[in-house]
Amino acid sequence: MSARTEVLIFAGSSISHEDAAKILDATYWPPISRGDIGKAASEGYKIIGIIDGIFFSRAAAAHKEIINVIKDGVTVIGGCSMGALRASELDIHGMEGVGTVYEWYRDGVIEDDDEVAVATNPDTFESVSSPMVNIRETLKAANSAGIIDDDECRLIIQLAKKTHYTERSYFGISRTAEKEGIISKEKAERLLQFCKENERDIKREDAILVLKKIKEIISEF
Question: Taking every annotated instance into account, which residue ranges of this chain make up the domain TfuA-like core (predicted)?
């Protein structure tokens, strides 16, 4: 049986199906929601990778349904977004976590669902807002590069965290930071330019790690 008929990946927001397929030959479904993993297992998929998932617009993938397919012998790998969140909660039940975001959730560095949540295009699943995990690391990089100082970085991260996940963007954050007097107009423009050109896309990095981990598992068969 080929990898494509045995392996299923839930993705689309953190990495496109087209880009993911260049790394791993598998079947790709949209971000996971309630009931999807049981359906996948019933269709014969033996290795399931969870990268992206539905958070607030529909019922999210439940812990019990993931545990059930693991008990039935399905290998479930998670990382990046919903996959990282569920893996941090279910690694004791046999779900395998991969990547930085998984480790942050597992170790209590981050706790909230909104850290990885984004607004998406309903037709393409593409992100139309920026995830907090990316924003935080990009702002830290701007701090290291001397664009903003330590206090400014801390205050802008707080500002971003207070912004609803559907409205988070580097443009909005830099402009709001200027309006609230955290940074000057000139510095806001420099910050926005830096973020556009130097974003730390933690979620995409972790999505790739999930795909590579599954590729490694397949190669061992």
Answer: 52-169
